[in-house]
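Pair request: fold both.
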Amino acid sequence: MRWRKASPASWAEFCALFCIVTFLLLPCRANAQAGANAPAGARLLGAENAAGHTRARQPGQGQDLLSVIAAARHAIQDHPESASEYLALGLALISAGEAEAARAAFAQALAFDSGLAEAHYQLGLIDADQGKWSEAADDFRRSLAASPNHISAHLVLGEMYLRVGDFEQAASELNTVIGLNAREPGARYGLGLVRLQQGDLASAEREFRQALSLKTAYLAAEEGLGETLGREGKWTEAISAFKEVFTANPNSIEAANSLGAALSHVGDKAGAANAFRMARELSSRQLSLQRSQGENDRGMKLWREGDLQGASEAFRTSLAADPDNPEAHNNLGGVLWQLNDRLGATAEFRQAVHCRLDFAQARNNLGRALWQSGDIEHGIEEFRAALSYQPGLGVAHLNLGRVLLTKYALAEAEAELRRALVLIPDLAAAHIELGLLLASKAGILSQEARTELMEGLRLAPSLRSMIPLEYSRELP
């Protein structure tokens, strides 16, 4: 049979795949709201020095990462009831940025071994990153029930208690960490916060200074020390601490306000006025960002409900508050595409990438839009750029494979389709594209090609229209 020349996806198919990409953004936007005082993805206390801490295995980038995931999946095929193999897969998926797929792997590991401490711990980190403090605390307690000396679990459990205001329990966990590793800076910092809240200023100062002696450029501890020194009336030292924080992080409203208050106490009226002015400007900017985020979230809700016009208006309102919001640009592009405004959608995808160069999902969407418009080479460039920033973005591998088919780069296309399936085994379109490619290479509907096509149809029967009639007739 002649090679079937792949073509850009239909409008409906494009939208379906775009939605897959778009909804990957939802946790990011929700997380940013979940913990107002500590955005998701940033550990309050940190655990980089805690013995036994395995936030995520770091197998490398690109092909190394995919190889690790592929090896983990093959190991599971050989040992389908192995908790350790599912744990390894989960850790690799975390490295790929696939948190929900990793969650499923960790849950499966626990189904085979409920006492697997590391799986409970990793689930706790995922929950914590999503602002689910109570659920995370439960996960960490389960981890510690299985492994009482898991330093990192004690540390992050202490963080969860801090976040919900249970200072005595927080102090208990953090003191346990210090008993296991006296040089853990996060535990000292956390204890400083506890003592500050309890009004024990001398102990708070001691703990913050100890944290700073263990970890250089520990800005959170420096800020805590500055606040403590201010409460103790040591204004000159407090000013020094706040200046260091503000120099390193000029967007810190708290540091600017605290610096202004400290300067006022030593009679530096001009310096205080300047610091307060900066705090007001930063606060106004922060308010705009919060409004933008809220409108973006409202737009996502309307989009899910099928109200495209309402979603479009919400995303535009989001961008009026913050013209550099990359998620809002990307989401507006998706809605405009569904409204058949392809030029407008492409412009929004471009703007999303302009606002955040490493925005892999937006680059993938831009690549799709360019390919759909016939600009194959620039589409390929965007897919490759997306994967350079996020090698674990399965849909970008799928899209790159499909567009490579239009250039008859069959070996490269097959490799990309297989990579997509390593990352997302239930990606129906990838199974179908791979099946068609294999059939075209063999000149017949080989058994391997048939298997891929049938799996794709099992996952998404609506995609039968992608399969040429001569092959479709041979399938159930």
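--- second member of the pair ---
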Amino acid sequence: MNFSGPLYNILLRKKGEVADLVTQGRYLSYLTKRLRRLISENIARHIHVAGVRGNVLIITTSSSAWATRIKLQARELALLASQDISELHSITEIEIKITPKTEEPILIEPTPRSISIKASSDLTAMANSIDNDALKHSLLRLANRSKHKPG
């Protein structure tokens, strides 16, 4: 993640909560990188450090399957973290939370809608018999959805 843009520079100059959030985010990212170096690459790709609360290291993962695999190694992971990462020297327990990944929605081009020639002809006739300009305009637009224009 590149933190060099103008928004980031503005946030760094801010005092209080926003600057604290930026600092905390960087710290959690740092701890995640350090923790990932201690464990197998297979599991490392699926964890993120979400926080530290007392002697508890809070880790998030994307699914219950990965949460189960991490739970099976939680004691060993807590021991490794407390020994190898000075900031986590007091960690004795690991809490795992599941935060499913959200995928970008797939944008599907809408299928152009059309109506039959008969329907188009009927709508045009109806529109021409109406005094309300807004309704008349709407009906004519709908009539234009025919694949073939009435002849």
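Observation on the second member. The first strand starts at residue 48 and ends at 53.
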